[in-house]
Amino acid sequence: MKVGFIGLGGMGSGMAHNLLKAGYDLIVFDLDRDRGTEFVDAGATWAESIADLGRSVDIVFTSLPGPVQMKEVGLGENGLISTLHRGAVWYDLTTNSPTVVREVDVACRAAGIELFDAPVSGGPKGAKSGKLAIYIGGDKDSFEQHGSILDAIGDKVLYVGEVGAGNVAKLVHNCASITIRAAIAEVMTMGVKAGVEPESLWHAMRQGAIGRARTFDRIGDRYLQGAYEPASFALALADKDLRLSLELAEEHDVPMRLAELAQADFKEALSRGWGGRDSQSPMELQNERAGVTIKLSADEVQSVLDRG
């Protein structure tokens, strides 16, 4: 069985390496030829085009920036749908629009190709370590037949429902994360301005009922240290996810007042040229609005974590 992988960026590279480590015969492609060098050196085969890859594989993974790119890779001239053989399986790892996924699925079914939307959660570190949640949307029987390959790239492979459902789950997850961060920034600035040191305040938050679920831990490396570069999840990409979430909500006539407030901060941060900074960087805007400085050292953050 030959496996293809398209998109060797921050997320894709880690997952592709794990497929190689698991012993799969891997063929790779990326618009940036230089990204393929390390994979060829590790035993993969480089494809000169999407079409060359599509004609050569039984299973293909795509890890792309968003819906536009996924649709082009699938439906474009000499794309996957025109080159994969009948019976081939396509796992799209992109955080995508459920509507676009379902549209592409119609063309896949006509061509005899099994499409699964399979967005992942865990960031580049998780992609490298294999500690990823993978949300699966697609035919359940086919998933049970073909899904074992996903164990090579993730430790939480979750079947959610029919095609598109995987991205619904991912967008719900990311929208919640973004909105919660905005609320955390707001209450942190309130507490600091009211006279509590950031380290003590963060420690107190972590020990409360919500904090013991470790809701607040993810702000330690970024927001609390004011360290947004290099990004682990770039603001521009998070903005795409939030936009897709709000489009999904609008499609189903669901009001999203808190998420829209979070999006306003994202827009302001992007207007400042922060798109390449980490997705926690809009939290800094609340510090500015409140006139508060929150800046812990890495050692101070670790000291709180060590306290349990």
TrEMBL record:
Domain named 3-hydroxyisobutyrate dehydrogenase-like NAD-binding is located at 164-281
**Record-linked SUPFAM superfamilies:** 6-phosphogluconate dehydrogenase C-terminal domain-like (SSF48179), NAD(P)-binding Rossmann-fold domains (SSF51735)
Q: What's an example Gene Ontology biological process for this entry?
A: organic acid catabolic process
The catalytic site is made up of: 170
Q: Name one Pfam family in it.
A: NAD_binding_11
Supply the alphabetized keyword list.
Answer: NAD, Oxidoreductase
Instruction: Establish whether keyword RNA-binding is in the entry.
Output: no
**GO molecular-function terms, A-Z:** NAD binding; NADP binding; oxidoreductase activity
Ranges for domain 6-phosphogluconate dehydrogenase NADP-binding come to 2-161
User: What domain of life does the UniProt record list for this protein's source?
Assistant: Bacteria
Q: Which InterPro entries does the annotation name? A: 3-OH-isobutyrate_DH-rel_CS, 6-PGluconate_DH-like_C_sf, 6PGD_dom2, 6PGDH_NADP-bd, HIBADH-like_NADP-bd, HIBADH-related, NAD(P)-bd_dom_sf
Family of this protein: Belongs to the HIBADH-related family.
- This protein is called what? Putative hydroxyacid oxidoreductase
Per the UniProt record, the source organism is Rhodococcus erythropolis (strain PR4 / NBRC 100887)
Q: What is the lineage of its organism?
A: Bacteria, Bacillati, Actinomycetota, Actinomycetes, Mycobacteriales
